[in-house]
Amino acid sequence: MNLKGKGCLIPIVGVVAVLVIIVIYMISNYNKYVTAEEIVDQKWSRIETDLQRRYDLIPNLVNTVKGFAQHEKDVIKQVTDARAALGGARTTEEKAAANDQLSGALSRLLVVVENYPTLKSDAHFTQLMDELAGTENRIAVARGDYNDSVAQYNTMIKRFPGRLIGGIMGFDPKEYFKTTTESRQNPQVDFNTDGSTSFLFGGSRISLAADGTRA
After folding, report:
1. What is the pLDDT of residue 150?
2. Dihedral (C-alpha) 146, 150, 156, 158: value to the nearest 10 degrees?
3. Cys staple from 200: which of 21, 124, 162, 188, with CB 3.0 to 4.6 Å?
4. How many CB atoms within 10 Å of residue 165?
5. CB of 70 within 8 A of CB of 97?
6. Do 117 and 215 meet the contact criterion of CB atoms below 8 Å apart?
7. Nearest CA to 205 among 123, 133, 127, 119?
8. Which pLDDT score is estimated for 78?
């Protein structure tokens, strides 16, 4: 091959080398985006599992309350309506809004429970509230983990060249699981040494002594 032919190959080899580097870079970033997206999906799956667990607990809680406070139809309806809204929610935004609605309804239910000492002392009710508070705490932890993973993923695909590469490869920003300040307060169930029990939920607290009377 003469020098003229070699001179023509040099630019071609250079272009091919650049293209190979670009392809390798895009594949590498694609894998990073896929991994980050999978982490987001895994965190979201945890939220959905805990939301479903709470969804399943509500009917038993409502039926227990009805047995002692059947005249409190309005607040009971608020809880059942909020549960139905959560069951029908599809997007992250819809589920976050339904979650807030249900947390608010449950908080109002606890205020009503204050007027029924016999209900507060019922072992089944106490067990349900304990399970519900534990589930709410798991939702709060899962929500924080999910939002952290969304922040990392969104930052990755919004920065250059991630914005360009992510757009080409179909990676879109994820929605945060937003919630109100009130529903961010983790529920607590405290079993005190004197036999009394305290419930903190959505900013509302009820306390009952060992005999079921208000502490």
Report:
1. 97
2. 180
3. 188
4. 19
5. no
6. no
7. 133
8. 94
pTM, entire model: 0.74
Neighbours of 33 (CB within 10 A): 19
Segments in the chain below pLDDT 70: 1-10, 13-14, 18, 180-215
CA angle at 154 for the pair 150 and 159, rounded to the nearest 5°: 155
Cβ distance 208 to 215 under 8 Å? Answer: yes
**What's the sign of the alpha-carbon dihedral 80, 137, 139, 154?**
positive
Per-residue model confidence as pLDDT tens digits over 30-60: 888 899 999 999 999 999 999 999 999 999 9
Q: Do strands 188-191 and 197-201 pair parallel, antiparallel, or not at all (unpaired)?
A: antiparallel
Q: Domains in the chain, start-ordered, CATH in brackets?
A: 3-208 (1.20.1440.20)
> DSSP string of the chain?
--HHHHHHHHHHHHHHHHHHHHHHHHHHHHHHHHHHHHHHHHHHHHHHHHHHHHHHHHHHHHHHHHHH-TT-HHHHHHHHHHHHHHHH--SHHHHHHHHHHHHHHHHHHHHHHTT-HHHHT-HHHHHHHHHHHHHHHHHHHHHHHHHHHHHHHHHHHHSTTHHHHHHHHT--PPPP----TGGGSPPEEEE-TTS-EEEEETTEEEEE-TTSSB-
Cis before residue 161, ω within 30 degrees of 0? yes
